[in-house]
Adenine DNA glycosylase
Amino acid sequence: MKKYRQTGPSTVDSEYSALLLSWYALQGRDLPWRCTRDPYRIWISEVILQQTRVAQGTAYYLRFMERFPDVAALAGASEDEVLKCWQGLGYYSRARNLHAAARRIVSCFDGVFPVEYADVRSLPGIGDYTASAICSIAYDAPYAVLDGNVFRVLSRLFDLDWPIDTTAGRRAFLQLAEAMLDQTRPGLYNQAVMDFGAICCLPVQPHCTDCPLQARCLSFAAGHVSVRPVKRIRAKVEPRYFNYLIIECGSELLLHRREGKDIWRGLYEFPLIETSQPMEYLELVRTEPFHALFEDVEEWQFLESTLMPIHQLSHQAIHAVFYRIKVDQWSEAMRRLCVVDRSRLDDYAVPRLIERYLSR
Ligand code: SF4
């Protein structure tokens, strides 16, 4: 494995953290989870903020805390309730892991949030970043965080071309982050560097003119700001073609719960026929899954189709079409799905794509 030579320790003096902490005292964001040392609250906020912007995440955080104010409340809820509260945030494995971790805390730690890093790290869904954030912010334990903001700040400050998406690159950045960490106030320092990346050292058009670290920023001096940090692997986006059947019988329609290892596990959706390419309705009715579903239905009425804008996930682009079809009675295969009255649709946690369709 390739190793990256770290910037000499002489350049990582305490002046960096002092400048970051002074900046944070004046410019740091006033967020609802900043006024607590409760590890449960810090954990929930950190998980929500992964892949979610602060503005959107704050509303979810407040709602989540109201519904599940502590570990016991979260552990005592059903997975469906947790997913419903998470609906619209995406990356639903985060919600399932929160739920599983709360249950683990109850069964293995008597319902008390663990204090030791190794115990925190052992919980479902908690990786190095989240464990470091919780332990440093809640307990002032000396663990450096490394998220997208920190990668950007460090790579720019020291003008580093270490790829942030390789194991060797990440390891080298972690060593540097640990060397930078203010050992006396690790929680405060971690929040300061993350906020600095989110507010001042932005991915595009960073505020270099007002930056308190400008005089020490090597990429600013070298004119490399716009090319830091460096990534080696370009993520491939896979197209997928979803044909949803909204089968209506009177006031009822059908849902099914997604299972398996695919996206949106545990969420509800309309019966789905996934195809390897875009498909017209007349082609769709000739497919095997359509026949299986409509096998003993004598007559049905096609009402309308709706082509949705491409639904972009991190590695997938979902091309979805919704077909409304009316039947007079359910077939045997349809009865095996979840028959739901239209007025109760809101009780079910659905993916954002379905939510978007329903709100049209
Ligand atoms: Fe980031 Fe610009 Fe400050 Fe360098 S000078 S740390 S690039 S904001």
Residues 156-157, 200-201, 206-208, 211, 213-214, 217, 219-220, 225 surround iron/sulfur cluster (CB under 6 Å). Residues 14-227 form a domain with the Endonuclease III; domain 1 fold (CATH 1.10.340.30). Residues 6-10 have pLDDT under 50 and may be disordered.
